[in-house]
Amino acid sequence: MEPLKALLLLSGVLGALAEFCVIPQMDSQLVEKLGQHLLPWMDRISSEQLNPSIYVGLRLSSLQAGTKEDLYLHSLKLDYQQCLVGSASIDDNSDCQTKPSAGHLALYLLALRANCEFIGSQKGNRLVTQLKWFLEDEKKAIGHNHEGHPRTSYYQYSLSILALCVHQKRVHDSVVGKLLYAIEHDHHIPQGHLSVDTEAMAGLAFICLERFIFNPDLRPRITMAIETIREKILKAQTPEGNFGTVYSTPLALQFLMTSPTSGVGLGTACLKARASLQASIQGGAFQNPLMISQLLPVLNHKTYLDLIFPDCQAPRVMLAPAVEDPSPVHIPEVISVTLKVSSVLPPYKQTVFILAGSSLEDVLKMAQNIGGFTYGTQPSLSGPYLTSVLGKEVGDREFWQLLRDPDTPLLQGIADYKPQDGETIELRLVSW
Ligand code: B12
User: Binding positions for cyanocob(III)alamin (predicted)?
Assistant: First the structure.
């Protein structure tokens, strides 16, 4: 056969094999249960507990919370406008108890879009300006030769670009250039591992930019970066079907579902991921409101890119509060959990006895009550984030890693992880 004919035949066969990432409907009761988990969190409207991601997730889902949802948005607006608009910059907001980070502001802008609102007013424009300043600062921190790092992370950098982009606000080429460079050179990778979440968030930002890019010179690099991210995420699929871990799979799917090109094996990979997600949901892995908020859009075939032109009239099922199952009476079982900290001198090791079903946070509290152990946390959208152990605060680009002995990093935070009987948990100070 002539080489040209053979090539055409091959590309025809590959074309036929090319697939899109489509996630078939999941059982509606399962989805509803996930939505119900969010309801109690929507009653928490103090500045510290407000979570714009919950609102975004719900609006992009097949579910609605009626007036609760409206009140939640109202609380978000009061809080963010008081805290951010009242100040000259993100770093200067003296009239606020807690300082919303740029990442929170970006999520707030997504929440406004989820309600079909465009930033247009003077107040709104100040929010946009603040986000742009944040990106400029981060760009400076990365440096001319890309030798530095953003002060926050490439995840928040990407999220901020995405938020500006869905509001069709211009992002400076040099800001986009830093993210392109990071993707091209794997600069965002904490501890040398591929962070699927960060790749996916950057990918979503690039797909949005590809639609609105003002400088056509950047287009080929953006298209290439999207392709690179797609390949990396597909490569990160585990034998069970997760892209990275079960918790990075929702954002990975958001990206793959909107990825502009089809690909060989893409559809199959997504179906496998869906099957794994379904098993994890059934097994109760999704309890954390932030995680649920990233997952719900996927189960409704939506992604953050739908916020470019959101459909605010789409019918959504009204959520009813969960009816508690009368749980069978258990005789409380006491388990033992050992807590280990080797990153301090002298090293610490203590076994605590605690009720089965307690969280790691309960274990830390118990150890603190016994004496000889102290810890500190900081609130975040994912829950309490461990920031100090035995008086040792994290330094720049350090964190207290949670591991199950001997060396398995936990996939959940201290409030969500429930240790098993006989387990040893290590808290390890590491750089990222
Ligand atoms: C960046 C990042 C990190 C950075 C944070 C430092 C920094 N300056 O940004 C580092 C590498 C240190 C990190 C650490 C951990 N992370 Co992390 N992290 C993320 C990531 C990619 C983005 C977070 C973010 O910026 N959000 C946007 C901003 C606007 O929200 P925010 O609330 O202000 O962000 C803060 C919190 O998210 C906090 N944070 C980061 N990770 C975690 C994890 C938990 C459980 C908590 C409570 C807080 C927290 O740091 C952010 C910056 O201050 C998310 C991915 C995702 N899908 O959300 C994972 C993610 C939140 N992390 C996760 C995990 C499991 C962890 C660890 C528990 C891992 C471990 N075994 O030790 C630790 C936290 C341990 C502790 N000390 O409490 C999971 C949580 C899953 C879940 N079930 O809730 C996620 C979803 C990743 C994943 N796909 O598995 N993380």
Answer: 152-156, 197, 294, 385-386, 400-402, 410, 432
What residue segments make up the domains of the chain, in order of their start? 28-85+97-318, 334-431
Percent of the chain with pLDDT over 70: 89
Helix axes 52-59, 102-114, angle to 10 degrees: 30
CATH topology of domain 28-85+97-318: Glycosyltransferase (1.50.10)
Nearest CA to ligand 1 atom 72: 401
Instruction: Give this prediction's pTM.
Output: 0.93
Residues, the chain, total?
Answer: 432
- Please tell me the distance between residue 424's alpha carbon and the centre of ligand 1 in angstroms: 22
Q: What are 166-195's pLDDT values in tens digits?
A: 999 999 999 999 999 999 998 655 554 559
The amino acid at residue 223 is T
Rounded to whole angstroms, how far apart are CA atoms 204 and 197?
11
Q: Which neighbouring-strand residues pair with 348? A: 341
Nearest 5°: CA angle at 34, between 33 and 35? 90
- Annotated binding site for cyanocob(III)alamin, which residues? 152-156, 197, 294, 385-386, 400-402, 410, 432
